[in-house]
Design goal:
single chain, alpha/beta, five-stranded parallel β-sheet, five-stranded mixed β-sheet, 11 helices, elongated, binds 3'-deoxy-guanosine-5'-triphosphate, binds magnesium ion, phosphoprotein, diguanylate cyclase activity, EC 2.7.7.65, diguanylate cyclase, two-component regulatory system
Amino acid sequence: VVKPFDVPRVVNQLMQLVIRRSVAAERVLIIEDDDDLAQHYQLVLQAAGMQVARLTEAEKIVETVLSQRSELVLMDLYMPRYSGRELAGVLRQYPSCVGLPIVFLSGETDVNRQLSAMGSGADDFLTKPISDEHLVAAIRVRVERARYLNEQIMLDGLTGLLKHANIKEAAELEWHSAQQREQAVAFVMVDIDFFKRVNDQYGHAVGDMVIASAAMLLRQRLRRDDRIGRYGGEEFFAVLIDCNAAQAKLILDDIRERFERLVFQHANGHFHCSLSGGCVDNQSHADANAEQLRKLADEALYEAKHGGRNCIVA
Ligand code: GH3
Ligand code: MG
Ligand code: MG
Ligand code: MG
Ligand code: MG
């Protein structure tokens, strides 16, 4: 016997996700041309429990921030090939990096030059030499605030998934990264079946609960590195890393079956819902770019709808 859908438990699970995320190690990206200094900062921050990466190729700054899921960039100002100002300017052009704290750490003590560097979009200017305690505290407080603000900016309030613009951008970047590594990436579109009826028969609030539960199943069943967004009202767009369309279909069929088994309560009883999905991958569509691949996934979704719904087409 399947128990009716339990809203307090769902809320509690979502809170647990939020709490777990807020105590996770801060992920810091160090950009510093002096190897000894970089290593010193790395050790100090690691000793404070942070997860530290170092940028090795300036040209790949955006990809590195994305793949490392950096939460703060600690950057030198004067470097031989690109200045810190230039790199900060590049990062600030990407919507998903708008809320990324950029902190300069430099020997520059001239206040006017410090302020001019801040004009490139940095959040703070620390000067070398700096005490370990000062460095750790400055980073920790900025990451904590950025986590909260980024959630408000990037995540949809009902589902906790990426908003439309953010999943599109994430898909674009993940697609580029997969192409470069010659790795498979699957694009998946999911839509709840006959959802208008749910709203019409049981009301908007119950409809919202159905959307939130589909989102939670996607979250629970997909992997941590996969990207999931609420593309539209009751429509989701997911990017499955290192996964082809056939593998994506297996996972989505499992999600589809779990969703079908959920029991939703309304004032006078209970009801069931179903969802449909379409999966494609970059390898069987070598000529398609990210947006074309998403459209192909949408076409597969419509095939699933016309094929009778409650199914996944790959
Ligand atoms: P199909 O199986 O073909 O997808 O049928 P459908 O009824 O699901 O069709 P459609 O996708 O056109 O309907 C989506 C409905 O979702 C229309 C809109 O009123 C409703 N909707 C959009 N956003 C929200 C929301 O945030 N909450 C609720 N409760 N309903 C929403
Ligand atoms: Mg330097
Ligand atoms: Mg529709
Ligand atoms: Mg629908
Ligand atoms: Mg729809």
